[in-house]
Amino acid sequence: MLKIIRNFSRRILQSIFKKRDNIKLGFYGPPNAGKTSLANRICKDWTGQEIGKVSGIPHETRSVQIKEKVEIKYKGKSLVFKMVDTPGIATKIDYEDFIKHGLKRKEAKKRAKEATQGIIESIKWLDDMDAVIVVIDASENPYSQVNITIIGNLVARKIPILVVANKIDLKKANIKKVESAFPEYDVVGISAKDGINMDEFYESLFKLAKKV
Amino acid sequence: MKKIKKLGKLKGLRLQVLPYSEVQELNIAQRVKKILGLVLENKIVILQGRLRAEEEARLIEDTMALVDHVKSFRGIELAVIEPDLKDQSMLVKMKHGIAKRLIGEGNSLTVIGPASIIKEIKRDPKKIELLLG
């Protein structure tokens, strides 16, 4: 509770005395929603370099990855972000799931251990964010408790949120379902992998930055 | 006539209802400890009310620490059932508001169980389904 109050006061003071620069932009969501794919797409667009590795095996990102000073330009305006890509948040980790993805037992156990620590790290970083992009797989059911817990914690900390419904290139994707699950928030549908609808994403990102 | 599928043999399922009054006086750490203590006994906890957002985050953090340290513990499944007040009249909404102030989030129910027992909790706005492993 003290942390939340401290963070809130810091944000108020910053908004009064300091012009916002190097906005700490977090990428949060469940595993395999495409957080790193989106962060990579943005970093590649504006710096030419990626932030991290992606794969089809859940929990590929197991520690927080940071890219400093990413300058994004949109319609003549420019903003500088510190991109913070976080490990996917989950309520369970079973190393046997990784074995099903083809990993050897020892490797799977190591991955599970790192994944649990990554989730704890993600939650700890919540207090340091200026704004957060919640990345949701649009082909999955959006009413998962992890999504609700993430958004609830951001709201409690008064951190502005943009919901990204990723993977709209998939047949099963349903943006309307994501919109109706989170009616209070801006939802933008994209495909980070194929770069679909990134213009609308950048427009929403600049709107989000205004709330910081 | 449509054939009815045979139910698989259910070895045993333990549910524990946790009234709001039992956790009301506890701080975050104590609440989470109490819940996880029951989950580690392989019980599915039905908590009257809901945890605050920061308590849910703490529950996930402590669950992950336990996954790391307790052999065979894989984590939890968690879901909150809340009354859908979207299309209700102002009077019904007010009644719920008053009840909330008097007994906390007493209109909600939180289901928390070991991931080894609950394979998945499927939810949509109106219902939740527990799929047992």
What is this structure's SSE topology?
The complex is a heterodimer of chains A (212) and B (133).
Chain A lengths: L1 H16 L5 E6 L6 H13 L17 E10 L2 E9 L9 H6 L4 H21 L5 E7 L7 H12 L4 E6 L8 H7 L5 E3 L8 H13 L2
Parallel strand pairs in A: 1-3, 1-4, 4-5, 5-6
Antiparallel strand pairs in A: 2-3
Chain B lengths: L13 E5 L1 H4 L4 H13 L2 E6 L4 H17 L6 E6 L8 H14 L5 E6 L3 E6 L4 E5 L1
Parallel strand pairs in B: 1-2
Antiparallel strand pairs in B: 2-4, 3-4, 5-6
Helix pairs in contact in B: 2-3
Please provide a written account of the structure.
The complex is a heterodimer of chains A (212) and B (133). Chain A is α/β, with parallel strands linked by helices. Chain A is built from 7 helices and 6 strands. Chain A has a single domain (19-210), classed as 3-Layer(aba) Sandwich (Rossmann fold), CATH 3.40.50. Chain A has helices at residues 2-17, 35-47, 95-100, 105-125, 145-156, 175-181, 198-210, and strands at residues 23-28, 65-74, 77-85, 131-137, 161-166, 187-189. Chain A has a 6-stranded mixed sheet with strand order 2-3-1-4-5-6, sandwiched between helices. The radius of gyration of chain A is 17 Å and the shape is globular. The relative contact order of chain A is 0.17. Chain B has one domain (14-126): Methyltransferase, Cobalt-precorrin-4 Transmethylase, Domain 2 (2-Layer Sandwich), CATH 3.30.950. Chain B has helices at 20-23, 28-40, 53-69, 90-103; strands at 14-18, 43-48, 76-81, 109-114, 118-123, 128-132. Chain B has 4 helices and 6 strands, in the order βααβαβαβββ. Chain B is globular. The two termini of chain B are 29 Å apart. The mean pLDDT of chain B is 82. In chain B, the strands form 2 sheets. A 4-stranded mixed sheet of chain B has the order 1-2-4-3. Chain B has a two-stranded antiparallel ribbon with strand order 5-6. In chain B, helix 2 (28-40) packs across helix 3.
